[in-house]
């Protein structure tokens, strides 16, 4: 627990004066929570995203009673506790949220409730200090920008029946020398993917999944070929390397009774050993730069085996770690993964996510700050990514709620001017 120091005798511009919560809607039209924090000389707002392919070890998103109950918790239980505290003392507020909740998984107030309060507090403190959020979090030396990682084709839980079993076919412009160049490349790949799909299937309707990725009627192999081709085409056009990645979201394929990964679209089942060799073959054949959740969320051993066997590829844990330092500690011990997804609402508060980022960096894992499939236009994660010095942001390619984060990176790049540089990628 952090010490609850009050400010040092001076009237502080970051003291919290009021807190409001309301119900708004996310990109899927589902209700979610938005929180406003009014500080003595600042204002902060944040809204929570929602996952659809959630990890078993994630925080519970909302309390019993859903978003309405979450709104009531903020106004009746949380606001009275945090009004009068200093928004600049993020860990004090976050510890208090955990204390008020009193459970391990935020099942009492909801992880999304904690998220919205935690981020709104950070935004209010930044505003009162007249700093952009990334600088409030990371200080003046903060000048490294992340590579965008976005899905251009998708299936699994984010799309309909005929789409591939693999959840996300991603693109990462590893050779870009600026955010603006990187964004041009990912938008070009998104457009090129549509072109390649149409050239193979003239009946393609242009349908897209929850995160704006194309959702064609295609087998996994067809989808892999399409995206590989589009990346290659754009690499040549742009004159720098644009590579491919995957989020297999393998927990959604895993059938615990059969002890097999079931690829319904392809009509194939794979044992753990077969899944491992399939993943290795994909890394090699498609020169994958990134591979997320290739195994179900309890199989640390297979993650470790794969991590050991690949070169120039980030093996990333999402459902495996759920941004949780205890899970990450297990992963580090076993050598599972060289990258970790950071989704703040998997764990509830900004401070807990910061802890996970610190631990990841200490042990050489690349932290990848990520959106959720149900998003709001809140751009805060762009600032969190830059402020915490994370080399990759995974936030989709198209759709207003995704582009909001990408455009925010452009603004940060613009403000940093000559000081801006791309992060170092270990690829
Ligand atoms: P989500 O999944 O639907 O839980 O946001 C996205 C992901 O698996 O990365
Ligand atoms: Zn994932």
CATH T-level topology of the largest domain: TIM Barrel
Name the CATH architecture of the largest domain. Alpha-Beta Barrel
- Structural domains: how many: 2
The H-and-E topology, N to C, reads as: EEEHHHHEEEHHEEEEHEHEHEHHEHEHE
Sequence-ordered SSE layout with sheet pairings:
Blueprint: E1 16-25, E2 31-39, E3 42-47, H1 66-82, H2 90-101, H3 111-128, H4 133-138, E4 144-145, E5 147-154, E6 168-172, H5 179-200, H6 220-238, E7 243-247, E8 254-255, E9 260-263, E10 268-270, H7 272-285, E11 290-292, H8 300-309, E12 314-317, H9 325-334, E13 339-342, H10 344-347, H11 350-362, E14 366-370, H12 380-387, E15 392-394, H13 400-416, E16 421-422
Parallel strand pairs: 4-16, 5-15, 7-11, 11-12, 12-13, 13-14, 14-15
Antiparallel strand pairs: 1-2, 2-3, 5-6, 6-7, 8-9, 9-10
Bound molecules: 2-phosphoglycolic acid and zinc ion.
The site of 2-phosphoglycolic acid has 9 residues, from loops.
């Amino acid at each position: 627990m952090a010490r609850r120091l009050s400010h040092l005798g001076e009237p502080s511009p970051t003291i919290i004066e009021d807190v409001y919560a309301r119900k708004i809607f996310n990109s899927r039209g589902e209700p979610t929570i938005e929180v406003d924090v009014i500080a003595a000389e600042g204002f902060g707002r944040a809204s929570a995203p929602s996952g659809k392919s959630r990890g078993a070890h994630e925080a519970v998103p909302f309390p019993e009673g859903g978003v309405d109950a979450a709104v009531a918790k903020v106004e009746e239980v949380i606001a009275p506790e945090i009004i009068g505290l200093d928004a600049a003392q993020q860990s004090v507020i976050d510890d208090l949220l955990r204390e008020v909740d009193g459970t391990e998984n935020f099942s009492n107030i909801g992880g999304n409730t904690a998220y919205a309060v935690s981020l709104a507090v950070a935004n209010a403190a930044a505003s009162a200090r007249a700093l952009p959020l990334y600088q409030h979090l990371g200080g003046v030396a903060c000048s490294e920008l992340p590579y965008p990682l976005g899905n251009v084709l998708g299936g699994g839980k984010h799309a309909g029946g005929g789409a591939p079993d693999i959840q996300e076919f991603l693109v990462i412009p590893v050779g870009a020398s600026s955010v603006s160049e990187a964004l041009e490349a990912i938008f070009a790949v998104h457009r090129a993917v549509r072109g390649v799909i149409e050239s193979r299937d003239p009946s393609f309707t242009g349908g897209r999944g929850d995160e704006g990725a194309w959702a064609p009627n295609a087998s996994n192999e067809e989808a892999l070929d399409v995206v590989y081709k589009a990346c290659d085409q754009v690499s040549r056009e742009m004159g720098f390397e644009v590579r491919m990645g995957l989020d297999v979201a393998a927990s959604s394929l895993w059938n615990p009774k059969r002890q097999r990964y079931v690829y319904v679209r392809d009509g194939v089942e794979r044992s753990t050993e077969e899944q491992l060799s399939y993943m290795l073959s994909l890394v090699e054949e498609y020169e994958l730069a990134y591979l997320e959740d290739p195994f179900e969320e309890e199989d640390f051993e297979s993650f470790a085996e794969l991590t050991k066997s690949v070169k120039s590829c980030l093996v990333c844990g999402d459902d495996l770690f759920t941004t949780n330092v205890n899970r990450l500690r297990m992963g580090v011990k076993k050598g599972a993964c060289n990258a970790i997804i950071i989704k703040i609402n998997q764990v509830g508060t900004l401070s807990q996510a910061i802890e996970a980022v610190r631990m990841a960096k200490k042990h050489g894992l690349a932290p990848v700050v990520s959106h959720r499939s149900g998003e709001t236009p809140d751009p805060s994660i762009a600032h969190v990514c830059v402020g915490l010095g994370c080399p990759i942001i995974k936030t989709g390619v198209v759709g207003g709620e995704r582009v909001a984060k990408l455009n925010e990176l452009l603004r940060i790049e613009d403000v940093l001017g000559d000081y801006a540089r791309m992060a170092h990628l270990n690829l």
